[in-house]
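haha ok so turns out i had the wrong file open the whole time. this is the CORRECT one, sorry everyone. sequence first:
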Amino acid sequence: MDLIPKKIFFTKGVGIHKDKLASFELALRKAGIEKCNLVYVSSIFPPKCEIIPRPKGVKLINPGQITFCVMARSETREPNRLISAAVGLAVPKDREHYGYISEHHSYGETAKKAGDYAEDLAATMLATTLGIPFDVDEAYDSRKQVYKASRYIFTSRNICQSAEGNKHGKWTTAIAAAVMLL
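then structure:
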């Protein structure tokens, strides 16, 4: 049985409810993946995998389907607390080689900061497997230029969902996910 995903899409959502689980369910609904039986997997972007738009990906899912994903999830019931969930992606230029997907969950970070961090993490993991020399202490923008100049990393990106905790203390859940389809 070949379990190597052929397609992948990225999605995000936020849910608010008095119950923690229901808040998560609402976030899944916003992301369009509530009807899946989700199986969390680690960080490998499969070789030759096609990135498809979210609407197309959601249409390919059947209710009850076992669906693999890399998911970031952050939740709070603290009023006004900033939460973020981000997924980063780094794809090599050589599509025969695998890439990396990373997840990042944070408090107090803006969507931009959390998204950049997740993207940086994925690109750094890919760079180390490709043997690209870089200074880990250098700012991501500088390293991003090194990665692009290396001609090995084709693209990197991220998706992030941030939210402020509900002012009445209800559970607030933010999710971001890379959803893999066989």
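The CA atoms of residues 54 and 121 lie 23 Å apart.
again sry for the mixup
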